[in-house]
Amino acid sequence: MEEVLMVSGLVGTQIVFALYLVFLNKVLNLGVHPLFLVVFSNLTGSLFLLPFAVVLERKKWPRTLTPTLGIQLASQAIGGVTVFQTLTLLGVEKTSPAIAAAMPNLAPGFTFIIAACLRLEKVEMRCKFTWTKIIGTILCLTGVIAMSFLQSPTTSSKLTYKVSLGDNNETEWIIGCGYLFISVVIISCITVLQAVTMQTFRAPFSLCFVTFSVGAIFTAITQIIVEGKMEIGSTAISLTGVIGIVLLGGAVTGVCVTFQTWCVKQKGPVLVSMFSPIQTVFSAVFAALILRQLISIGSTTGIALMFAGLYMFLWAKKKESYQVPDDIAKVTVNDVEKPLLS
Q1: How many CB atoms lie within 10 A of CB 288?
Q2: Distance separating alpha carbons of residues 307 and 305, to the nearest angstrom
């Protein structure tokens, strides 16, 4: 019964995320400022996570906030909230929800590369699974290139294809894909940093709460410095309506993040990652039905390549986790390598 609940919940979570991306695209097109959305959605998410953090993890909180832990938490807040989410929203504005949902499928490959460079992930070049992961990552990158440069908004459909800001050309599309690509690189770095932080701060709900709340504060400060005040943007929606929308979105996102965190704890990150392409498919369907946005065959091919690369990577990672290293007897307590993605 738990297996059925978990699978159904993961599918439902991805569908909700897909609908939320389409919803965000519509809200941004109406003129709501991306930074305003980041601030209030993360404040809402942090308030939702606070009870879980206090009730379930209070005994796991570190007794003192060391300078190292403080820097790690601040870096995750700035990178994972202020920079990552702002770039993602800018990317959604200039492309489409389907592309925005597809791009995060690059994250496992990038995380593997970064972790390998930092010696947090073992890389054995004589192992077939290592090469499978490398080939999968290359396929994902090829898919991104195809998705970015083979899109032709003006010819993809007889329907009106409206990209945010009213600029319906390939330059805007490529810039938007660039924003999304950079955001994935950043979140991959943050994922590695989270793995390091969790070695001393073993409280995922509390970590998310701190990241969301501090990130919202940093984002608010950024908007005040850049624009002189907290600005909702020039929108046709009333302030009350926008706040209601953001609060609802933050609450829904908080529920989904909490459920995914539970699934990762129960079954590991590989199973959760396998459901991410569902978000891309439903984002494309919802965007076509609600926003009348279609993507070209070229970009669809790129998404297919990305899916193939993702599943190759996840398959290799799963198989690799079953293997017992030949040199396991040689591992000592002084070994500093940690299995990040297992």
Answers
A1: 18
A2: 5
* Residue at 342 is within a domain: no
Angstrom distance (rounded) from CA 269 to CA 263: 8
3-state SS class at 123? coil
**Contact residues for 156 (Cβ-Cβ < 8 A; gap 6+):** 294, 295, 296, 297
Q: How many domains does the chain have?
A: 1
Contact 310, 140 (CB under 8 A): yes
341 within some domain: no
**Site of tokens 């396991």:** 328
And the tokens for 222?
């950024």
Name the nearest CA neighbour of 88 among 80, 39, 149.
80
Q: Tell me how many helices (H) and strands (E) the chain has.
A: 13, 0
**Alpha carbon distance 285, 18 (integer Å):** 9
Distance CA(201)–CA(53), nearest Å, equals 12
SS3 140: helix
Looking at the domain assignment, is residue 118 inside a domain?
Answer: yes
pLDDT in tens, 166-211: 445 678 888 888 999 999 899 888 888 887 888 888 888 898 899 9
- Report which listed range, 73-87, 90-104, 236-250, is most confident: 73-87
80: in domain: yes
Q: Which two tokens stand for residue 335?
A: 């070994």
Mean pLDDT to the nearest integer, 45-51: 88
Residue 190 Cα distances to 10, 77, 90, 95, 298, angstroms: 23, 9, 19, 24, 31
CB count within 10 Å of CB 3 equals 9
The number of beta carbons lying within 10 Å of the beta carbon of residue 200 is: 11
Sign of the torsion angle spanned by Cα atoms 215, 279, 142, 338:
positive
Domain that holds residue 65: 2-322
